[in-house]
Amino acid sequence: MTTASKDRLRLWLRLLGLTRHVDGHLRDKLRVEFKTTLPRFDVMAALSRHPEGLKMSQLSGVLRVSNGNVTGIADRLAEEGLVERVPVPGDRRAMILRLTPAGNAEFAQQAAAHEAWINDILHGISAADARLMAAQLIAVAQAAENKEKIDDPSHA
Amino acid sequence: MTTASKDRLRLWLRLLGLTRHVDGHLRDKLRVEFKTTLPRFDVMAALSRHPEGLKMSQLSGVLRVSNGNVTGIADRLAEEGLVERVPVPGDRRAMILRLTPAGNAEFAQQAAAHEAWINDILHGISAADARLMAAQLIAVAQAAENKEKIDDPSHA
DNA sequence: GTTAATTACTTTAAGATTAAAATATCTATA
DNA sequence: TATAGATATTTTAATCTTAAAGTAATTAAC
After folding, report:
1. Would you say the C-beta of A29 is within 7 Å of strand D?
2. pTM here?
3. Which segments of chain B does DSSP mark as H helices, in order?
């Protein structure tokens, strides 16, 4: 392979290494400090951004995971009274999932802690550098996604 | 929270988004083109870097996953004849896991394809930019890890 | 208005993952 | 040389994940 190819491979491995490190740290913190998991946090975060709730299919679309995946996580959150399923008027197939008041209160605490953990672990990066690097990553992500559209125009 | 905190949170979300995107793409490719998975690929990659093999505990250490995790993946790879467990002379507790000749041949193909997929999806980034960004990420990772050592000196 | 196709969601089967418990072996010490 | 503690691995129980199959309800075609 070319040296350019090796450079991109190395970039990917760095990206993956850092992301796994931070990701693992966040999972540990959620488990120890809130007895919860990242997938549960992700579901509650999505619902928090939509106070009126989301249909199961919308939720799995937003989170980019399978339908069946969300079913199981919603089941467990519902058992604990953090979310509730509400029937959709006029469509008996669909269900809206939304945070309960208890879920809202719990998530507010988790979200504040989550932001603080990230601020803490990434404290070595200045705010300016963080903005710069975020902008670069947007460019990289766009290049990657455009690449896919060129290869498979069906996703237009 | 401060604006700096928000900037770092946004950086993290970008990092996570890009990594998940590429990660998902690689998993798809491994599944479709080689009928395998990323964890299996990771195990074989680690063994490939150590032709004499690795003890189960060394392997889980290198991959930073639990012992029990490696046990299951090794079981499945062994069933297919891609890896083999070799007893360790002088320590009947331990087992060395290593690639079989078939595993070596299979991994060589997967590794070449893997590098090509990454080169392809990150093709929008020049080799120079890739090197630059990789260097920045090393700095970020070091800052993150130093932060942890300061917080918990037991890991010295 | 019945039938066919589509849509929304759940269930199932398999693998990945962890922490904690269980096994088996080794090492050091009394 | 017993035995107590440490080490290497596997097993177990729980959650997460997907793809594929299954259920129920809606929409479209005829």
Report:
1. no
2. 0.89
3. 3-34, 38-48, 56-63, 67-79, 101-121, 127-151
